[in-house]
Design a protein that fits this description.
This protein is of the alpha+beta class and 65 residues long. It has helices at residues 11-20, 43-46; strands at residues 2-5, 26-31, 36-37, 54-56, 62-64. The chain is globular and about 30 Å long.
Length: 65
Amino acid sequence: MKLYYSPGACSLACHITLTETGTTFAIERADLRSKTTESGADFTVITPRAAVPALERKHPVVAAF
């Protein structure tokens, strides 16, 4: 599971919840202006709204809040 976040956005609440529940997850920063992730991926391919928080699971399902 991977949580996409952006500093100053409301994705911190999801990060805290995942941590407190003991869920294993990775995090990756998303640049909302350029619509890319820190690894250089096109964020609009991951979630068409390009909004955070976005939670990517093993199955090709992304939950954008």
